[in-house]
Amino acid sequence: MTINSTGEDMLKEVLLVEDSPGDVRLTREAFRDFDKNVRLHVAIDGVDAMAFLRHEGAHANAPRPDFILLDLNLPKMDGREVLACIKKDENLKTIPTIILTTSDAEVDIAKSYQLQANCYLVKPVQLDEFENLVKSISDFWLTKVKLTQQPHGR
Amino acid sequence: MPLEVLLVEDSPGDVRLTQEAFREAGTRINLHVAADGVAAMDFLRRQGIHGHAPRPDFILLDLNLPKMDGREVLSCIKEDDDLKTIPTIILTTSAAEADVLKSYQLQANCYLNKPVQLDEFETVVKTINVFWLTMAKLPPRPDSGLERDR
What we know:
Largest interface: A-B, 29 and 31 residues
Helix content of chain B: 40-55%
Strand order of the largest sheet of chain B: 2-1-3-4-5
Strand order of the largest sheet of chain A: 2-1-3-4-5
Number of helices of chain A: 5
Distance between the termini of chain B: 7 Å
Structural class of chain B: alpha/beta
Radius of gyration of chain B: 14 Å
Shape of chain B: globular
Low-confidence stretches of chain B: 145-150
Oligomer: heterodimer
Number of helices of chain B: 5
């Protein structure tokens, strides 16, 4: 899928860990509008997310994500735990992990940065603001930021 | 309250460009400059002449620096339980994959290439400004339970 070796026009694999089908749909549509080079994978709970990242079970052929959008409040295993697992794993810790949550509680923000979240974003409730946020994620993380290059589709 | 930003950069030209780009972007920030890695750590630990230095809300860090290089500074920040929560953004001319990977291993919050073209340099600073200073939630200041005023 690599178009060139500079990383600029490469297909980006993004893992969205989100249990709300409405938010998944909004995120998917916003990425589709702003960046055609994104392939969005969805994990609906923390256990599913870790299985995806570790290529377990149904996710044996999952690609390594270029970055992760992680909700905090998730069924089965919550986002803080998922974040801790990612950042303790030598192989996974280099994947930028962005918290995307409705919580703007200082305790959640502080805890996420302590666990080495790469950044923390609050999900806006207004539809146009939500789209605007996805656009800035796309502008910043997919266009300006240098991500690590790794083999896809392992 | 303006945001406190620490720029760790040894090139006076790049310091000036960064200052001007932030000024144009119109965000109220106090830009502090450390010209080498030792000065950066002194600033963060409030040592020597930096006894009254504020805690930065975020850090822009070059990799190639005199005295103590950026990788070492990053590693010191991210191994320190007090400092590790400060978002630390690598801003460097190096596009080497080894530097990108090493920086993420050391838990840099993100890695940006410093463009050589003047207008592109301004664009990058503006993007940092939009994303980190208006979109992202920065860690709360330990010394105040108050929501920061942007």
